[in-house]
Write a structure and sequence with these properties.
Elements (H helix, E strand, L loop, with lengths): L4 E6 L2 E7 L11 E6 L11 E6 L4 H13 L4 E4 L5 E2 L5 E7 L8 E4 L2 E5 L4 H10 L2 E2 L11 H6 L13 E7 L5 E5 L9 H4 L4 E8 L1 E2 L2 H17 L7 E4 L10 H7 L6 E2 L2 E3 L6 E4 L5 H19 L8 E2 L1
Parallel strand pairs: 4-7, 5-7, 6-19
Antiparallel strand pairs: 1-2, 3-4, 8-9, 9-13, 10-14, 11-12, 11-13, 15-18, 16-17, 17-18
Helix pairs in contact: 2-5
Bound molecules: flavin-adenine dinucleotide (FAD).
The site of flavin-adenine dinucleotide has 32 residues, from strand 5, helix 3, strand 13 and strand 15.
Amino acid sequence: MSVTEVPLRVHGEFVATMSHPFADSKVNDIVTCDAPLAPLTWLSLGGPAQYLARPRHVDDLSELIRIANANAIPWRVLAGGFNVLVRDQGVNGLVIHLVSPAFSDLEIQDKSVHVGSAVPLTALISQTARAGLSGLEQLTGVPGTVGGAVKSSAATRVVTLEPLIRRLTLMDADTDVVTMERQDLAPGQSWADLVEGDVILDLDLELTPDNPESVVKRMRNVWILKKEHQPYGHQASACIFRDPKPDRTAESLIEQAGLKGSRIGGAEVSVRNANYIVVEPNCQPGDVLRLIDLIRGEVERQFRVELALRLEVW
Ligand SMILES: Cc1cc2nc3c(=O)[nH]c(=O)nc-3n(C[C@H](O)[C@H](O)[C@H](O)COP(=O)(O)OP(=O)(O)OC[C@H]3O[C@@H](n4cnc5c(N)ncnc54)[C@H](O)[C@@H]3O)c2cc1C
């Protein structure tokens, strides 16, 4: 098959080849067809992306989106892949894997931090802590990137990233680069709502000066607690539901429902924290989905609480 052609599949079965809409463009060399997504997600499950591209800079990104829009190709962004479960059949359309250094700037000046969306949250937290800036340390141990954290409203029971964001720059669906200020948020609106359908490029955060040793110490303490309350680091796992209320956590409801350790196929409700599913190498995406249904059904039956998914199913 030439690079100008892509496989056309129906229900996962190869039917024919069709021409490649990115072929005659300057992004041809960064687009891969029928590209495996499993290695790019923490769960390591699921089928390929019809098109996968890693933009080298903002121009590549706008060209990819422009061509996708012109050809009615759905597109989405993948960053660290810690909050995504890919189905067996994979993803129809373009997956933009945002990992290049062009999206990974990190500059700290006084109490202001300018950070690219592809920077790992852990790198941001440790560098700001060492620079004597407080505010992020309670997010220690949340895996993924800065962009993923904004989009999925990453939070711990104590803190979210949201109130620390002063300014956010994004590329919208028309490929315009737009900068939003905190005051652009309507009452009750979150940054995650504001960036729906857009690509987050970078953020400006405002943190609080503090003694570096104290911040690093708090960071270490949070990490010790976090590690104890999530699956072991070597286990592929996902945090499944949002907490219905701060004092009524998904973890406690699932545990009270007697579901800790429940399993379907290669997927198991973590015995360390019931709001995580851990997967074994033989696991299929369907095992995770059926286990999610089982948990939801049982929690609803026993407590009349509808659990909302934190994990995205693609
Ligand atoms: C062991 C473990 C522990 C976890 N603990 C926590 C926790 O304590 N708190 C918590 O909130 N979450 C937790 N999570 C979930 C996960 O870490 C967060 O959701 C994280 O923010 C995902 O970041 P990511 O870079 O992996 O995003 P991805 O999983 O790649 O993407 C998540 C979403 O963000 C979008 N996205 C990513 N980057 C961009 C961008 N630049 N522009 C636009 N959209 C973008 C994607 O399209 C997708 O919709 C945990 C997960 C695991 C596996």
